[in-house]
Amino acid sequence: MTQPGILIVLSGPSGAGKGTICRELLRNCPNLHYSISATTRQPRPGETDGSNYLFMSHDKFRGMINDNDFLEWAEVYDNYYGTPRTYVMDLLNSGKDVILEIDTQGALQVKNKFPQGVFIYIMPPSLDELANRIHKRGTETIEAIKNRLGCVRNELSYVNNYNYIVVNDEVSKAVARVQSIIDAEKCHVSRNSNLIDKIYNLCSQ
Amino acid sequence: MTQPGILIVLSGPSGAGKGTICRELLRNCPNLHYSISATTRQPRPGETDGSNYLFMSHDKFRGMINDNDFLEWAEVYDNYYGTPRTYVMDLLNSGKDVILEIDTQGALQVKNKFPQGVFIYIMPPSLDELANRIHKRGTETIEAIKNRLGCVRNELSYVNNYNYIVVNDEVSKAVARVQSIIDAEKCHVSRNSNLIDKIYNLCSQ
Hints:
Radius of gyration of chain A: 19 Å
Oligomer: homodimer
Helix content of chain A: 40-55%
Strand order of the largest sheet of chain A: 2-7-1-8-9
Largest interface: A-B, 37 and 37 residues
Structural class of chain A: alpha/beta
């Protein structure tokens, strides 16, 4: 019997570098799969269903919410975004690890529905650095950056709901830490009951 | 404020390869210290106090038992062996990681007194392999090996008291897994309250 995969949930303040860490992990770990979101928004040019997003109608999305078919979902500017439960479970049951990169509210929803996931909070090394990173993206005004920094404190109050905190002082180090967390979790006694039963039965022969 | 070190407790069936893994870890991890046992037995030629063992009288040892000064202790053939609590705590508080290689009974005693330790059960890949390893040491008769294998099942019933199980299929892989466990544990939210408080305070300024 295959050991089920692990669901890894990465979140943390905007600008902490979650996206970069996630891309590097996907490059390094062949068993790791990125969880695609479902959305009701229209595909943009070049986006294809099943590759960037699972595109669906408002009616279908609402039906899935009612059937508890999302690990987490949110409404943003009249459109829905969410993580379909079956999509993730099928990957996990086939032994693949799945990574979700979502905000704190989404992570809390996932934890509520799937507490055996591994919840990792990514933190920039300092608030100055966080401001720099957001600024470097060049898409935000100083005012917006200040606003975001103000939100960090609020977000931080959720950190105790996570299992791990990884400071993104250097991307390569942060990626190595997350990889260690995945490797360690695979050795966790609670994830190895099949193996333990097998050895126990061998001893009883 | 220094982040306290981590106490790593390695145990598992005799012949699982704990000693080899422990030596390799000590070679690879400069921050890792081997915990020396206290004993009442006489030093053998070449053994020095504080390097191989902390040698002490029966009276002193019994006094320390009464003062709850051992993380674990046992009496073996009229001599006492134990892990002095202060010795380990001083290392941990100075930020060093400490590794203990002890049997299941000792590990359970440590867990009772220091549950924030990391308890790792080392398992040989198969029972045949376990028999081979014990046999290769050349110090045991077939009868003794059978006896030991019979004890493995009993030992295994304690595995759920451990945090991690590491199968020693290849020494280098097993060592890498234990290293990942140490690195992951350093990122655990419960071990990073100082860091979290620091960031929280920075945000509040």
